[in-house]
């Protein structure tokens, strides 16, 4: 049985963050990036399964763990990634902050970029030419006194929305302008410590994709049991 941590329209807030960044600024987002670690367990995938908004559902893929090896100094206006300029990164950062609901407050900067401000999109990391690692912005946030995290990943893709696949999404919605929004809430465990994460993956008509994710881990990587978005 699937347990949902959504509270009323709370998760809609994270969808709004993704849609604002994707449609309002014309950006794009990273796909799913699981992390491998000893003692790692993820939510079991049900199949066959009906997914709202999907005419058909493909079987799940075998779980894979992978990362990105980057080289060199990162900077904006990288000719290898012309879709992200310093001006666009600044506009995307403002859009993401402005899209947060009034009940959510930024309490800390990036956990990945020491000393960085919260929800500021970073330069695209130099990586293998066959892979566009995209740009990311993250922050620790609080809602009703409970801390959690928010990450927005952005990159460029050419092949459109991923086909509906078990374990990849819980629901799909196609908006009137052609934007496709996939949502998913899930959990994983590291050595018995379970954390919950909500995802909104937004495919814009111009080929842009934004992935907004929010988890119940606070700045000390402790689980609070409540996902803020």
Structure description:
By secondary structure, the protein is an alpha+beta fold. The chain has one domain (about 10-215). It has 2 helices and 8 strands. The chain has helices at about 10-25, 85-100, and strands at about 40, 105-110, 135-145, 145-155, 170-175, 180-190, 195-205, 210-215. Strands 1, 2, 3, 4, 5, 6, 7 and 8 form an 8-stranded antiparallel beta sheet that branches. Strand 6 (about 180-190) and strand 7 (about 195-205) form a beta hairpin. The model is unreliable at about 1-10 and about 25-35 (pLDDT under 50).
Which key features would you list for this structure?
229 residues, eight-stranded antiparallel sheet, 2 helices, 8 strands, 27% strand
